[in-house]
Amino acid sequence: MSTDPSKDPLVIFTPSGKRGRFARGTPILTAARQLGVDLDSVCGGRGICSKCQVTPSYGEFSKHGVTVADDALSEWNAVEERYQQKRGLKPGRRLGCQATVQGDVVIDVPPESQVHRQVVRKAASARAITMDPATRLYFVEVQEPDMHEPTGDLERLERALGEQWEIGEITADLSVLGKLQPTLRKGKWQVTVALYHDHTGGPARLIDIWPGLHEGGIYGLAIDLGSTTIAGHLCNLDTGEVLASSGLMNPQIRFGEDLMSRVSYAMMNPGGDAEMTRTVREALNALAQELADEASIDATLICEITLVCNPVMHHLALGIDPVELGQAPFALATSDSLSLPARELDMTAINPRARTYVLPCIAGHVGADAAAVALSEEPDKSEDLVLVCDVGTNAEILLGNKTRVLACSSPTGPAFEGAQISSGQRAAPGAIERIEIDPATKEPRFRVIGVELWSDEDGFDAAVAETGITGICGSGIIEAVAEMRMAGLLDPSGLIGSAAQTGTPRCVADGRTHSYVIHDGTAEGGPLISVTQGDIRAIQLAKSALYAGARLLMDEMGVDRVDRVVLAGAFGAHISPKHAMVLGMIPDVPLDRVTSAGNAAGTGARIALHNVAARAAIEKTVREITKVETAIEPKFQEHFVAANAIPHATDPFPELSAVVPLPAVSFNTGGGDAEGGRRRRRRG
Ligand code: FES
Fold first, then answer.
1. What does the buried/exposed string (b/e) look like for 33-42 if buried means 16 or more CB atoms within 10 Å of the residue's CB?
2. How far is the CA of 79 from the centre of ligand 1 (A)?
3. How confident is residue 128, by pLDDT bands cut at 50, 70 and 90?
4. What pLDDT digit, counting tens, does each position of 647-663 carry?
């Protein structure tokens, strides 16, 4: 800043409001840096990265007490002209490293020029993620070697980073050290490096190096590794933009649908754990490659992964035998977060020096996925008492407010994800995701993923021709069961009535029980999509487990009511609060107090990918969360049995009955329910 502040021009930055007086000729980027204004720069002011773009404003600003003259900034210079011709600058923009201060001026820093820019988490969410990733790019000019002053190239790179970017010590492993010399020479001593520097301190790691200015960007993967599905987001580590999102089935399903059956597979088969580890790592590589292809980027530009998963998946992905997680006291090999080279997880598809951050686990049954949900939904910052249910094959449940947060997991099984359901499938084009049943005619109408029209609307048949009608996904089955209950096709115990009892030929005999036919495509060679008695039982087991887990946390907290409910999970974005409540999945609250968070675990992984402070924060939060173990808690069984009816039999549900009257029907199918009744609940 100038030594004669009274005479020097005043520079005011918006939106930060930071201001200061600077000598004429000071570049805007320098002024911004001195004031601590968040203005980006990768090339360090050399006029080649265009990250420093700003918008000067001219005229009278009574709010700031300044008048900005037309010549408040230096004239458009050759560097800006070259950039304008090569790439084009938006109207009114200047390069902050080129334009210099000549008079009082107001400078706006547009969002894309802010280093710590905010990224909208998703359209429906007001909250944003502040960009502060662990891996960043730096353009640097390195001194050439000198025989008279012998130093290594790495040491000179380190010195240049210190001088030009205030970066302290760096470390480089052998594989990048081998690239260093040719790259420095190819770039004529100008290179771009990707450095990893996380919240734990210590030296920055050299992840990669490119000659000259690297314009291909760097990317990160946020992965939610679930028992049934693996979801991944490919994100730009500079802008935070999600370039591609994809999900695939976890191929470990062939070793067992739920977690406990995978633990038993590891127990019964020597080498079974290693086999499952290999399988899931192959899937993670395939997912990384698929996302890179979809975004048309080179997969080796993926420099970082954040991984969230339940404890069993955590151990299997890390190559640790999960056997201890199958028996009390359910000890984890480690519950702390991990920061590892991705190659230790055999991630060969991405950058060979990429890092992986695994969020901390909460307890032996409450994993890093629950930690990620806590990071995303922040129950620990809530004023009111919030119940967060992340519904998957294993439900992760959090209950709390800013004074205390409790967590447990509950073995819901894969039914909510459309697995173990006779017409079930994952949420993909062609799957029925919404359904309504007319209480008078008992006729269904539905919508399938990929088609906007309802099945009874004109044009539906043509619109659905491409995807077909292939099955029911998780949110579809929840709506189907709840709608069947509301339409009087299902009694409170969960029995489907016969055609005679319900008055619709859509209820067909199916052995000793009945099924409700939603869509019969057999005449055209398509599937018969129906809800069977077995499906109802699977959903009852799943929803009872979810409800019992929530109830257990409420007991522990000493409350009978919660203020609001957040539904999360792969299908959480689509789940209808009304149907969830008719089913008795969640405790009774006013319908407008139930919201969907979508894939909150995936969002948590994305937050941790983009913001290192969030990693430190969740590690602290996890240490403070009270863990409740459902597997050894006798009251869990009690709550589970009581929750079996649709909706819950003993909890009054006054909020629900005020808006959704449920018919008082009762069916008897001559013992057809015995098979379902004998089914054993399994942790999954
Ligand atoms: S800082 Fe790179 S162009 Fe200005």
1. eebebbbbbb
2. 10
3. confident
4. 877 666 666 766 677 78
Q: How far is 573 from 567, CA to CA, in rounded Å? A: 8
| Ligand 1 center–CA 159 separation, angstroms | 21
245/348 Cα distance (integer angstroms) = 20
CA 376 to chain centre: 8
Radius of gyration of the chain (CA): 29
* Cα 299–Cα 303–Cα 304 angle in degrees, nearest 5: 115
Instruction: Kindly give the pairing relationship between strand 219-225 and strand 302-309.
Output: parallel
Query: Does residue 32 have its Cβ closer than 6 Å to ligand 1?
Result: no
Ligand 1 center–CA 293 separation, angstroms: 30
Is 43 near ligand 1, meaning CB less than 6 Å away? Answer: yes
Q: What is the DSSP letter of 660?
A: -
- For residues 546 and 387, give the distance between their C-alpha atoms in angstroms, rounded to a whole number: 12
Q: Three-state DSSP class for 578?
A: helix
Across 1-25, average pLDDT: 82
Rounded CA separation 153/169 (Å): 14
CATH assignment of 371-411+544-653, among 3.30.420, 3.40.50, 2.60.40, 3.30.70 = 3.30.420
Pick the CATH number of 220-367 from 3.30.420.480, 3.50.50.60, 3.30.360.10, 2.60.110.10: 3.30.420.480
Indicate whether residue 299 lines ligand 1 (CB < 6 A): no
672 and 515 Cβ atoms separated by less than 8 Å: no
What is the CATH architecture of 135-211? Roll (3.10)
Of residues 225, 51, 247, 14, the one with CA closest to residue 131: 51
Query: How confident is the model over 155-170, as a mean pLDDT?
Result: 96
Identify the CA nearest to 597 among candidates 299, 349, 379, 307: 379
Nearest CA among 681, 502, 677, 494 for reference residue 583:
494
Residue spans of the domains in the chain: they are 5-113, 135-211, 220-367, 371-411+544-653, 415-538
Closest CA to 567 of 448, 478, 659: 478
Q: Which pLDDT band holds residue 234 (cuts at 50, 70, 90)?
A: very high
Mean per-residue pLDDT, 310-335: 91
The pLDDT value recorded for residue 669 is: 58
Q: Cα separation of 624 and 96, whole Å?
A: 44
Distance in angstroms (rounded) separating the CA atoms of residues 25 and 46? 16
Residue 438 scores a pLDDT above 50:
yes
CB of 45 within 6 A of ligand 1: the answer is yes
Tell me, letter by letter, the H, E, C secondary structure of 139-165. Answer: EEECCCCCCCCCCCHHHHHHHHHHHHH
Length of the chain: 684
Tell me whether the CATH fold assigned to 135-211 matches the one assigned to 371-411+544-653. no
Is the CB–ligand 1 distance for residue 49 below 6 Å?
yes
**Centroid of ligand 1 to alpha carbon of 130 (angstroms):** 22
Percentage helix, strand, coil, to 5, in the chain? Answer: 35, 25, 45
Q: Is the distance from the beta carbon of residue 48 to the nearest atom of ligand 1 less than 6 Å?
A: yes
Does any ligand 1 atom lie closer than 6 A to the CB of residue 52? Answer: yes
- DSSP calls for 53-90: EEEEE-EEETTTTEEE-TTSBPPP-HHHHHHHHHT---
Query: Letter for the amino acid at 96?
Result: G
Q: What mean pLDDT is reported for the chain?
A: 88
Which residue is closest in CA terms to ligand 1's atom 2? 49
Looking up tokens 């129906």, which residue turns up? 530
In the block, which residue shows the tokens 């390069």? 95
User: Would you give the DSSP letter of residue 27?
Assistant: B
Q: What is the CATH architecture assignment of 5-113?
A: Roll (3.10)
Contact (Cβ atoms closer than 8 angstroms) between residue 410 and residue 546: yes
| pLDDT of the residue at 126 | 44
